[in-house]
Specification:
Two copies of one chain form a homodimer. Chain A is built from 15 helices and 25 strands. Chain A has an eight-stranded mixed sheet. In chain A, strands 8-9-10-11-12-18 form a six-stranded mixed sheet. By secondary structure, chain A is of the alpha/beta class.
Chain lengths: ~550, ~550
């Protein structure tokens, strides 16, 4: 197998290879990205979902390095968990490094990470992998894609990308570099599918700024812009437009404030002197001189925007002359929360601009024409759509066929699938064993389907615990105590509680007085009693004490 | 107050007056609609949300009748709960009556409902209310709006409506009737705001049929159409297109099958002979001769489409030559589930058509131009946007201002607000006390915020119950039993369990041996022990037995 390159996408839940991709050649492993996902609504109580490191665990000494394509959580968020298990050399651009440093410092594992700064245009040799990096446009500066030259051919991994001809040179899709790679010959292109359902090119960020100009010009009072804390280019636009309209800018929300401070210090935000003010200062200015940029565009209940909507933000009270811009796309699963906040803000009289009403957001991912451009420049022999869900992979594969790549050279992978790339071949090997790994509090991987199923039941109807006391000697039942939460409001259901006790008592005595026999009888008896009385199915547990 | 008409929108959660509106004149009450809502994702375990009948409760004898505008759940679903409390005369069109009969029969309260069939064009006097009904287009046939002539003026309530000039005459917006009402003079228009964010007219249903024609013509195998069980016009289109393409139609999903049978019997579906087949018969035909119309367009986990996607539908196995159309708009909160199902179907190789890819669905609600048409025809003195959320009300109010209604005559209500309409005036009175009423199993209104908060906590980290036994005489602690669910998988956490027991034992003994003192100590002790050990906050309860 030494003459095969093995490529394994991992993590990202429904999104293929979003969080991590392994490249394995002989006894050499290259890791691209190490990110985490936020849980879906039915992953009860889970804080994060990270890739399964099981396949790597007995091969850590083969890892030649980790390349991070950019600084977003879904590409860096699992690093602290991987670094707990092994020390690693991590290669990333300057801004990404700034963000990762904060992360590893917080986790107290800075000493496990050997951080190396790379930049687009550089070349780097890691074992058999001869790498070069090219800049891409994305919704955070300093993003890269990479070319991996291997003995079996050249592989290009796009990272998250789009084309935006109006961006600064340091964050622009490197068309010349891509054309040169295309000339060298590309065996396999792995490209970002996220935007494959959108026709056309993704509009340039500039259109958002134009929209902001119009909105700011008409706003009678404050302008409040909610967006992602990591969307630094949007923050820059808010600052630029505010400065032109003679407004001071206050930053609300801890993650936004941290990012702005870090990006300003590293030179990724250009902020005119005296433009940033704290919120107290902003509150002392005329509303028409104030902009607030805030977290909470996804409806996160504890973020700045949700608190403003609910009237629980101590510093910011929404007024009828406020103009509020929700400058973000709602991530599936968050619609209900975002919707509720928009309604609350409107009920407070504010002018809220969101969704399709005006172009207040553009995606960080390329649309169909961006994707076709990449294929045209690189002319790969094989094509692998990555980073999207199956629906995006499928559309991206259609585009690739339209661009002349024969269907048998289009490789639709799932997480854990293994592509074995030879000089003339690309075949799927035996998939590796992997699963989504749940982080819950301090626990990693200790919450599985059984616990989640219990949480789901508890979320619906709560629980009832019946404690049956046997009299000394264990020859008779002494009494029953009932405790319950999330089932009915027991203070108002004293009658039901008494009948539950009586029923448990009756059932407990109606058979052998062994612990196990009593608890089984009481559990089943109460379950059917409660179903009949209330139509509900709380989780019932019976315990026996002597 | 006898010379004032009081108008009170109720129910519908965020949507104003969606489920119910009260009209009160002197000691006479007219009820329009009596519907229910599906709960939002954070209404843990709740089955239905219904309007608060508290205000009506000591006035039931004043109710002159209930008018149902159409047969959808959000306009009829709470009837069984209101009929539990009082007998009522209910006026509705023929199809609506058919649907309501099924509902009251199932609830076993047919004898409480005096059902009266009305039809568009009819006039009906109920106490001081002189009513007439006009037909509207909506996504179910036989929908009506109503004009309420009262001593203080004429009120028009649009019901859910849109304009579709291609629909059958019995279900078409009655332009002539509306023009005539406009000529009579309209004091107040209460109009459906749901589509107020969409520019233009809502496209006619016909465009969906044209899309179906193209898809059916190209489909190599079966066509599977998922839509709402109540969307009979869509089912009719599927049947018509199937017949033209020589396909038999099988109906999957109980609610869809019930509705199709009822609508066919009542003449609301025109089905050519031998077109409907059962699924077994369909499975014996060549795939290119088969259409399946199914429930599950909202991603409901137990509905037909979800089972096909998961591979658990016993009769229907998805094949790569299947063409699947998701003919519905995703209701906010359901996106994650719908998305997952689309991905699963694509991974099974099917060609899935959804969302913006092709016009496979149109809304049942009017867009901005439909709404303007209604205002133009009726030229009301006062305007009240209803049936939408605040964001829709707000946009609808903007339209009304554009149409020349002065802002002070545009009445933005919340549920429970009271409009007092006089001959020359419209003023808000004291709001009535009302809340969302939760139905959970057999219980109505017995689950409130406290129980929901407990369910939320349980859904995140589960619970731990510690039972502390005192030795006979109560002078010493005998032992501790721990039971827990949804917290950690205890079989794999034996060590943690032992330490929990030891900690509970230690804390129990570290103070006075009264029940209350022990249980408080053990609860707090375990909470902080578990937070430190696991980073989680399960609900902890301590019980003492002697």
């Amino acid at each position: 197998m030494a003459n095969r390159l093995r490529i394994i996408p991992l993590g990202g839940m429904g999104e293929i290879g979003k969080n991590m991709t392994l490249f394995e050649y002989g006894r050499n492993i290259l890791i691209v990205d190490c990110g985490s996902m936020f849980p879906e609504n039915d992953m009860w109580g889970i804080d994060l979902v990270i890739p399964d490191f099981g396949y790597l665990r007995d091969k850590f000494e083969q890892v030649r390095g980790v390349i991070l394509t950019h600084g977003h959580e879904d590409h860096t968020g699992a690093l602290p968990y991987l670094l707990r298990e092994t020390s690693l050399t991590i290669y990333c651009t300057r801004l990404t490094r700034g963000l990762v440093e904060v992360k590893v410092d917080r986790a107290g594992i800075r000493n496990r990470a050997n951080l190396q700064t790379i930049q687009a245009g550089e070349r780097l040799r890691l074992g058999p992998f001869d790498l070069s990096f090219f800049s891409v446009n994305h919704s955070i500066p300093d993003g890269i894609g990479l070319a991996i030259r291997t003995p079996v051919g050249n592989v290009v991994h796009s990272g998250d990308f789009k084309l935006d001809l109006g961006a600064g040179l340091d964050s622009q899709l490197d068309l010349a570099g891509l054309a040169q790679l295309g000339g060298e010959g590309v065996s396999l292109l792995m490209a970002d599918s996220t935007g494959a359902e959108r026709p056309g090119f993704t509009p340039p960020e500039r259109v958002v700024e134009d929209t902001f100009e119009r909105i700011f010009a008409e706003a009678p009072g404050r302008v409040i812009v909610a967006t992602f804390a990591s969307l630094l280019s949007r923050v820059q636009q808010v600052i630029d437009v505010s400065a032109r309209h003679n407004r001071k800018v206050a930053v609300e929300g801890r993650s936004m404030a941290d990012n702005v401070a870090m990006a300003q210090e590293m030179g990724y935000l250009r902020i005119p002197p005296d433009t940033l003010v704290d919120i107290r200062k902003a509150n002392s200015l005329p509303p028409s001189r104030v902009t607030i940029v805030a977290t909470g565009s996804q409806g996160e209940p504890r973020a700045a925007l949700a608190r403003m909507a609910a009237g629980t933000n101590r510093q910011i009270e929404i007024r009828p002359d406020d103009t509020i811009i929700v400058s973000a796309q709602t991530i599936p699963g968050n619609e209900e929360m975002v919707n509720r906040i928009i309604n609350q803000l409107i009920q407070r009289g504010a002018n809220v601009i969101y969704g399709e009403m005006a172009q207040v957001h553009v995606s960080g991912h390329g649309s169909q024409e961006d994707q076709k451009l990449l294929i045209r420049l690189l002319r790969p022999r094989y094509f692998m759509p990555i980073h999207g869900e199956p629906r995006h992979q499928y559309q991206h594969a259609r585009l690739a066929r339209q661009m002349g790549i024969p269907p048998e050279r289009i490789l639709i992978m799932q997480n854990g699938d293994v592509l074995e790339l030879g000089e003339e071949t690309a075949e799927k090997g035996e998939p590796i064993s992997q699963a989504e790994v749940f982080v819950d509090g301090a626990g990693v991987g200790d919450v599985g389907p059984a616990v989640l199923r219990d949480r789901e039941i508890l979320s619906r109807d709560g629980f009832v615990v019946a404690v049956v006391s046997l009299l000394p000697g264990g020859q008779a039942v002494g009494g029953v105590q009932i405790v319950s939460r999330g089932f009915v409001y027991l203070r108002e259901a004293e009658d039901l509680l008494q009948r539950m006790r009586a029923e448990a008592m009756r059932v407990a005595q109606a058979g052998p007085l062994t612990d196990r026999s009593i608890s089984e009888r009481v559990q089943r008896g109460l379950e059917s009693f409660l179903l009949q009385e209330t139509g509900r199915r709380p989780m019932v547990i019976a315990l026996v004490t002597t």
